[in-house]
Amino acid sequence: MMCSINEENLAEETMVATPKLSVTDAICRRCNILKAQVLLRKTDPYCRDCFMKYAVHKFRSTIGKAHALKHNEHVLLAYSGGLSSGSMVKLIKEGLDFSESKKIKMVFKPTLVHIDEGLILNLSKHERKETTDFVLEQAKKNGFDVYICSLEYCLAPDLNDLKLEMNSYQIEPSIYESQLEMLFGSVKSLTAKEDLLIRLKQRLITLLATRLNHAKVFLGPNATRLAGQLLSAIGQGRGAQIAHEIGFTDSRTGTVFLRPMREFVDKEVAYLANFLGVDSVCLPTLSSKLGSTASIGRLTEDFVVTLQTNFPATISTLFRISDKLKSNIADLNPSDCERDSLCLLCLSAIEESSVCSASTARHISQTFSRSGPSGHPSDDLRTHPLQSVGTVRHQDSTSCSSNCNSQGKPCCKTSNDQIKSDWSAVLCYGCRITMEDVKQPELMPINYLEELGLRSRRQVMRQSVEQFLL
Amino acid sequence: MNSELEITLNFSGGAELLFGKIKLHTVKLPSQETWCMKKLLVWIKENLLKERPELFLQGGTVRPGILVLVNNADWELVGQLDYNLQNKDEIVFISTLHGG
Amino acid sequence: MVVFCSTGCGSTAVLKRPKTDDALCKNCFFWAFETEVHHTITSTKMFQPGQLVAIGASGGKDSTVLAYVLKHLNEKYNYGLKLVLLSIDEGITGYRDDSLESVKRNQEEYNIPLTVLSYKDLYGWTMDDIVKQVGRKNNCTFCGVFRRQALDRGAVLLKCDIIATGHNADDVAETILMNLLRGDIARLQRCTFHITGSDGSLPRVKPFKYAYEKEIVLYAYFKKLDYFATECVYAPDAYRGHARALVKDLEALRSTSIIDIIHAGEQLAIKDGVKLPKQGLCSSCGYVSSNIICKACVLLEGLNRGRPKLAIGKSNKALAELLAERLQNAASIKTTIQDQF
C-alpha cells in the first residue's frame, strides 16, 4: 500500500472526535434546573442527583436485562478493595436497603470474597495486612460477610485444601507459597505473567465459589478496563474468547461470572465512588510503576485511555463488540471427550486450524525455519501446483516430525520438549502463547499435570484404536 | 593514540527523510571510549537528525517499525542496544512505516 | 557474537524472524519466505491456471516484492498465470513521479507489462483538484474510495480475472484493530477472508496476508529490489495512525503479536441474530456496495455538484438528499415532457 488508507476499510468515520463547547457553569441536561457537577463524554453535564439516578438505573438494568439472577439467590461479590468493585458493593448495598422506590429493590444475598495477591506483588506482610484489614472493615461497614483467600491457594488440588475463615484473615505460610513464587519467577514476560494471573485467579475464585456453594460471582471490572482487556485479548490471539472474557456472562468454569460494572467508564466510577462515599485502597498490579510498554495488557489499557480522551466513543464501541460475538463452547456439562477439546487453563474450546490460517502459517514458518530447504524437496510442493487440499494437524509445534513416540520408543526429542508439546496439545492458542513463556510448567497446579497425563494417554489410545481400525 | 572509530550509517525506506534526505553517512567517533548502540542512537539524535526526533527514537530505542541491521544482519542477533561498535561497522536503518 | 542459521545449514544468520524468533541465513530466508507465500497461494486455491492476474503496483515495497515473488513462483511451480502490473495515478503533484518511475523499472526488470490509469481518466478529477475543493481534512477519504474502484475498473478494462495486492500481515492486523475501534463488525469478519469482493466485482487476493512487513522489507533489502518510499504529501492522520502505532508497539513487545492478532481476527464469530449490512451492488455504477449507491458515486456526485462536503459526513443522509433530488429532477423532466406534448 502506498498510503495508510486501507482501501477495504473505508467506512464512514464512526469515531467522532470531541466537539468543542463550553461547559463552564453548565446546567444539568436532564433536569435543566440544577448546576451540573458531572461531565460525561466531555459534553454531557449532569447534576449529582440526575447522575446518580442514571447510574443506578444503568447498574440495575445491566443485571436485570440478562435475567441472570434468581429470586433470593446467593451471589459472591469479588471485592478487590479498589474503586470499581467498591462502588459495585455499595450500589448493591443501597439496592438491597429499602430505597425510595419499592419496585426497584434488589433481591439477592451477597457475600464478599477477596483474593490476597500480595505474595506475587512482593508486598510486605504489613502492607498485605493493611489491605486485608481494610477489606474486612469495609465488609463490616456494609454488613456483608467476607471471605479472604491468599492467591497461592490457586495451586491447591482440592477445594477442601483452601484455608477459609469468615470475617477474619491471617497471613500464614502455606505449602504453596514458594511454589507460586517460583512459578511466577519462571515466567519470561510480564504479558505472560499477567495472563497466567488471570487464569489462576479465575481457578481460585471458582474453587472458592464451589466450596461456599455459590453458583454466581460478580466481578468488578468497568468499561475502561474491559475495553483495554479486549484489545489485550486480541493482541494475544484470544479472538474466540472475547464473548466470555469481555461480555456480561462467563460460564466457562461452571461457576457463572457476571460483570455488572461493565457499562461504567473510569470517570463514571470515580463520580459514583465519590457520591456514594466509597473508600478504597490503592492496589498495586504486576505492571505498577512500569512504563506503558511493560506488557500487552498495560499497553492496550493506556492506549484505550489515551484514545478515549480524543474520541469519547472509543470505550463503549470496543466493549460492545463483545455483545455481538459468539461463544465457541456449546454447553456447560461436556462429556470426557468434549472436555478434551477444551483448553486446560481457560476452559475455552481449543481452536481448530484450517489449512490456511494464521495458526497454520505460524506453524509452517516454524517448521520451515528449523528444517530449511533441504528438509523439503521442492518436488513435494510441485505435485499439485495450485491445489493442495486437506486439513493440517499441528497441535504441537515442538514434537518431532518422525512420530517416533507412537512406535513405542522414547521420542528423539528431549523430555522437556515432550512436556512442552503435551502442554500445547491441551491449550487454546492464547494459553499456548502464555505457557511458552512459563519455563517451569511443572509448578502448575497438580490437577493440571494429572489431567495433562490423562489426556495424552487418551490421545495415544485413540491413535492406536484408529490404527487398529485401519 | 588519537585513533577514531569509523562507521557508516545508512538510512533508507523513508528514514532518510529525517536526515535531510541523505542516505549514506560516514562518521568518525572518538574511540578512546566504547560505543554501544544505545550511545550511538543518542549521538545520531544530537549530531545527524534534522527533524522530528520522535519519529526516529522512542523510549531510548528506535521507534517501533524501524529495522536496524548491523553489518547486514538483524541487530536483534547482536544484542540490539548493547552491541559494541567496531571499526568499519555498517549500520542500516530501514523504515517500514512509509507506504508500500 | 555469530549466530548460525537455525536450519542447521551452517551459514551465518542475517535476520531474526519475527513470526517464530528463529534466526535464518540469507538463502534459507529467501526459500522460507517464498515457500510460505507459495503455501498461502496453494492452500487457499487463490489462483486458477490460465488466469490473468492484475498486480496492484504502487512502486512501494509491498507491491514490488509481490511482483517479484509472484513472477518467481509462477515460473518455479508452473502456476500457468499471466501477470500484469496495474498502477493508479491519483494526480498528486510530485507524489507519483518517483514511484511511477519505480514501477516502470519493475516492468523492465521483471518483464511484466504495465498499465497506468489516472484518476483524471477514470473520474475526471485529480487529487490536487479535489484538495482544492475539500481541503486537506477529508481528502484521504476520496483518495481511498476512488483508488479501490480504480484498481477494479482498470483490471476490468485489461480483462483481468483477479487482482492481487501487496497487503501484508501488519496491514491485516492493523485493519482488524481498526475495525474493532470502529465497532464495524461486518468488516471485522470480512477483513480476514482470503478472497474478497468476488461477488459482482473482480476477486481480490492478498498473497502476503501472513507475511510480516519486516520480512518483506528485508527480502527487498537483501535481494536489492528497487522500490520507492515516501509518505503521501497529504499525510493521512486520523485514527488509523493510532491503530498502526498500536500494531508496531505490540510487535515490539512480542514479535508474534501480529500473527496472533490475525489468528484472533479469524476466530471472531458473530452471534446469531446480529444484523449486518447486506452487500449489494451500486445502482449507479454496479460496483459492490452496502448502500443503494456506492460511496464513490456519492463522493463524485458531491464533487460534480460543487458540494463535496455533502458526501463526507453521514453518508446515509447525503444519500437520501441525493436520491430525493434525483427523483425530483426525474419528475420535473417528466412534467416538462408532458407539458410539451
From TrEMBL, chain A:
Q: Name one GO molecular function term.
A: nucleotidyltransferase activity
Q: Known InterPro entries for this protein?
A: CTU2 (IPR019407), Rossmann-like_a/b/a_fold (IPR014729)
Going by the UniProt record, its keywords in alphabetical order are:
Cytoplasm, tRNA processing
Q: Identify one Gene Ontology CC term for this UniProt entry.
A: cytosol
Domain of life here?
Answer: Eukaryota
Q: In which pathway does it act?
A: tRNA modification; 5-methoxycarbonylmethyl-2-thiouridine-tRNA biosynthesis
The protein depicted here goes by the name Cytoplasmic tRNA 2-thiolation protein 2
Q: Which organism is it from?
A: Daphnia pulex (Water flea)
Lineage, top ranks: Eukaryota, Metazoa, Ecdysozoa, Arthropoda, Crustacea
Automatic annotation (TrEMBL), chain B:
Where mainly located? cytoplasm
Q: Which GO terms describe its cellular component?
A: cytosol; nucleus
Q: Name one GO biological process term.
A: tRNA thio-modification
Q: Where is this cross-link: Glycyl lysine isopeptide (Gly-Lys) (interchain with K-? in acceptor proteins)?
A: G100
User: Where does this polypeptide localize?
Assistant: Cytoplasm
Determine if Lipid metabolism is one of this entry's keywords: no
Q: How is it modified after translation?
A: C-terminal thiocarboxylation occurs in 2 steps, it is first acyl-adenylated (-COAMP) via the hesA/moeB/thiF part of the MOCS3/UBA4 homolog, then thiocarboxylated (-COSH) via the rhodanese domain of the MOCS3/UBA4 homolog.
User: Could you give a GO molecular-function term held by this entry?
Assistant: protein tag activity
Name the domain of life.
Eukaryota
Record PTM 1-thioglycine, positions in chain: G100
Record has tRNA processing as a keyword: yes
InterPro entries, alphabetized? Beta-grasp_dom_sf, Mopterin_synth/thiamin_S_b, Urm1
- Metabolic or biological pathway: tRNA modification; 5-methoxycarbonylmethyl-2-thiouridine-tRNA biosynthesis
Which keywords annotate this record? Cytoplasm, Isopeptide bond, tRNA processing, Ubl conjugation pathway
Q: Which SUPFAM superfamilies match?
A: MoaD/ThiS (SSF54285)
Q: Which Pfam families match?
A: Urm1
Chain's role: Acts as a sulfur carrier required for 2-thiolation of mcm(5)S(2)U at tRNA wobble positions of cytosolic tRNA(Lys), tRNA(Glu) and tRNA(Gln). Serves as sulfur donor in tRNA 2-thiolation reaction by being thiocarboxylated (-COSH) at its C-terminus by the MOCS3/UBA4 homolog. The sulfur is then transferred to tRNA to form 2-thiolation of mcm(5)S(2)U. Also acts as a ubiquitin-like protein (UBL) that is covalently conjugated via an isopeptide bond to lysine residues of target proteins.
What is stated as this protein's family in its record? Belongs to the URM1 family.
The protein here is known as: Ubiquitin-related modifier 1 homolog
State the organism of origin. Daphnia pulex (Water flea)
TrEMBL record, chain C:
For this UniProt record, give its keywords in alphabetical order, as a comma-separated list.
ATP-binding, Cytoplasm, Nucleotide-binding, RNA-binding, Transferase, tRNA processing, tRNA-binding
* Entry keyword Zinc: no
Q: What is this protein called?
A: Cytoplasmic tRNA 2-thiolation protein 1
Which compartment or compartments is the protein found in? Cytoplasm
| InterPro entries the record matches | CTU1-like_ATP-bd (IPR056369), CTU1_C (IPR032442), Ncs6/Tuc1/Ctu1 (IPR000541), Rossmann-like_a/b/a_fold (IPR014729), TilS/TtcA_N (IPR011063), tRNA_thiolation_TtcA_Ctu1 (IPR035107), UPF0021_CS (IPR020554)
Where do the tRNA(Ile)-lysidine/2-thiocytidine synthase N-terminal domain residues begin and end? 53-231
- What's a Pfam family in this record? zn-ribbon_14
Question: Domain Cytoplasmic tRNA 2-thiolation protein 1 C-terminal spans what residues?
Answer: 281-311
Out of the domains of life, which is the source?
A: Eukaryota
Please explain the role this protein plays, according to its UniProt record: Plays a central role in 2-thiolation of mcm(5)S(2)U at tRNA wobble positions of tRNA(Lys), tRNA(Glu) and tRNA(Gln). Directly binds tRNAs and probably acts by catalyzing adenylation of tRNAs, an intermediate required for 2-thiolation. It is unclear whether it acts as a sulfurtransferase that transfers sulfur from thiocarboxylated URM1 onto the uridine of tRNAs at wobble position.
Where is this chain primarily localised?
A: cytoplasm
Q: Which top EC class applies here?
A: transferase
Q: Which molecular function GO terms apply here?
A: ATP binding; nucleotidyltransferase activity; tRNA binding
Q: In which pathway does it act?
A: tRNA modification; 5-methoxycarbonylmethyl-2-thiouridine-tRNA biosynthesis
Q: Which family does it belong to?
A: Belongs to the TtcA family. CTU1/NCS6/ATPBD3 subfamily.
GO CC terms for this protein?
cytosolic tRNA wobble base thiouridylase complex
Q: Where does ATP bind?
A: G56, A57, S58, D62, I88, G166, D171
Q: Which PROSITE patterns match?
A: UPF0021
